[in-house]
Specification:
This protein is an all-beta fold. It is built from no helices and 28 strands. The strands form seven sheets. Strands 3-2-1-28 form a four-stranded antiparallel β-sheet, with no helix packed on it. Strands 4-5-6-7 form a four-stranded antiparallel β-sheet, with no helix packed on it. Strands 8-9-10-11 form a four-stranded antiparallel β-sheet, with no helix packed on it.
Length: 339
């Protein structure tokens, strides 16, 4: 089996845009790195079922989202003054794209046009009080994606809040619930359990995973557990980054930038309790993102500062990772997307 992986990058030093690399499961290797398209700091990527590709972009001092067709031909870019978003997601049912803008504390929605291009729809800013951490100087929207019941869930690192919105077909949003995390958590990313009404929230600033129950009647979250992603003896600087759950809902994975590791957790049968069972090096510096292969047999981690990918074999029964390849060149990679 050959899996194709798209890599989103920064283009501050040596990267030129969006890359593709192949995972050969027979050989258990990553190879054939190629430049898909030149783009300015396409730091996050999402693809529709029609194979339209949407990426973060920065153009002429403006930030926004670029669209590409199935042949990676540029369609259009919707940009505005200021910094670029940091997260992109596709809503197939409503034919929308969502963007989270860290620097602006902004949630943006875009309508997908028949040819796959985008049109700006709505913008929402967060103005709630911020947390006590030095990085919580203002609202910092970091994630926006769909809940299992097709509401929009938004994490804001600056305000220590997770917002739930109802969304219309036109891209208009209405806030229906707000979860307030413990001060200084810094909500970054969130992932839902594949079969239960439970979400796992990664706190970037305190390197924690919070187990949250989700109430579909009103879109609210309630905390049940909070656990660190770091060993007790670690005393350095760290920032939580990516979080994933295995397809069977039995294991959770979270990357640490600073400790430069992936923490592996066993998920209790009821989904409400996590137990850390492994902490494995990413064999590089600043693992901003990683992803499980579609068959969940492999994990690919991207180390932003050391320009390398690391490949792990994943034990499906016990959830543990084994490093099988490292030092695969990938310039400034910060998003790993199996396509």
């Amino acid at each position: 089996m050959i899996y194709k992986i798209l890599l989103g990058t920064y283009t501050r030093r040596i990267s030129q845009g969006i890359y593709q690399i192949e995972l050969d499961t027979a050989a258990e290797t990553l190879n054939n790195l190629t430049l898909v398209t030149e783009e300015n700091s396409p730091t996050y990527l999402a693809q529709s079922k029609e194979d339209f590709l949407y990426s973060v972009t920065s153009r002429d001092g403006q930030g926004g989202i670029s669209s590409y067709d199935s042949q990676n031909k540029f369609l259009n870019a919707v940009t505005e003054d200021g910094a670029s978003p940091c997260y992109v997601a596709v809503d197939e049912a409503r034919q929308l794209v969502y963007g989270a803008n860290y620097h602006k504390g902004e949630l943006a929605t875009y309508k997908i046009q028949p040819d796959g291009s985008l049109k700006a729809a709505a913008t929402v800013f967060h103005d709630e009080p911020t947390g006590p951490h030095k990085n919580q100087d203002k609202a910092h929207t970091h994630y926006t994606d769909l809940s299992p019941d097709q509401r929009l869930v938004v994490c804001d690192l600056g305000t220590d809040r997770v917002y739930t919105y109802d969304v219309t077909e036109t891209g208009a949003v209405e806030k229906v619930a707000v979860y307030l995390a413990e001060p200084g958590t810094g909500p970054r990313h969130l992932v839902f359990h594949p079969t239960k009404k439970i979400a796992y929230l990664f706190g970037e600033l305190d390197s924690s995973v919070s187990v949250l129950t989700y109430d579909e009647t009103d879109g609210s979250f309630t905390q049940k557990q909070k656990i660190s992603t770091l060993p007790k003896d670690f005393a350095g600087e760290n920032g939580g980054a990516a979080i994933r759950v295995s397809n069977d809902g039995r294991y959770l994975y979270a990357s640490n930038r600073g400790h430069n590791s992936i923490a592996v957790f066993a998920i209790a049968e009821d989904g409400l309790t996590l137990e850390r069972i492994q902490s494995i090096s990413t064999e590089g510096d600043f693992p901003r993102d990683f992803a499980l292969s579609p068959d969940n047999a492999y994990v690919v981690a991207a180390n932003q500062n050391s320009d390398n990918l690391t490949l792990y074999r994943r034990d499906s029964q016990y959830g543990l990772l084994t490093m099988i390849q490292k030092d695969i060149f990938a310039p400034e990679a910060v998003c790993v997307y199996f396509c």
